[in-house]
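dumping this here before i forget
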Amino acid sequence: MKSVFQNLSDVRVFLAVMRAGSTLAASKTLGMAQPTVARRIEALEHVLKLVLFERNTQGFTATQDALMLLPSAEAVEKTAKELDATAARLASSQSRTIRITAVTDAFNPHLSAILKGFVESYGSMNFELIPSDEAIDISAGNVDIAIRWTNKEIEDPSLICRNLATITHSLFASKSYAAKSDLPHSESEMDGYKYLVFGGNLAVHPVNKWLLKRINPDQIAMTCQDFKAMKTAIQMGAGIGVLPTRFMNSDDTLVHCIELPEDLGSTVWLLVNPSAYRRPEVKAFTAYFAPRYSAHLRKN
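structure:
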């Protein structure tokens, strides 16, 4: 059955006249012209096939039919207000929460400092931080922003992409390991040393493939699942392993051995869901975060 009340505006007009007692007083409440309110009531009566108000010199007097409709009309009004309030709360909550994913190692004091700086400059803001060594689907809306290390091109053309830095890699040893013997400084000198290789998702990384092609199985001292574990294993003196070249300047516990070919490096991307990017706080965060995190990657 087709509803005779075409929209909530019909309910608002009806209730305003019921409460004000005249179309003139109701027009002031509604912000409409008095003739418009009168026409709306006449049209509503025609559609409902009911007389809602008796007209007299004193104004509009509600009929028995109008009084019977009043509780239902007020219930509709209350429900509409609750709907508006709930929608507003949801929109406010969602628009003020930025969901960020990155590999586990990326959640460190450097990232915390940038997030803190953004909150201090932008105002109240919530973050949902999602560490994952698996690539979460950004296009599906599962996250708003991803900080992604990859040696592949970004295949999804719908994503907003910012190249933050290109990370090259080198072989490193600890000072304790270096104290035992000379270190290799070229591919031709790699025999006779113990090496640390990657397992898990990083087993297929180009730098790991490069290393495995140049050493024998009996030279493998340990397998590490990520770069954090690799750094720990190198520092304990277990062998020579691959880390980003930038550690040569930022960590004096490591000794640089061989810089790997540049084409084996990884690109760090800031990827943003296009729907999320339309939100002011996400756009502001992207503009704030990208140059600061890029500087951190190049410096440290």
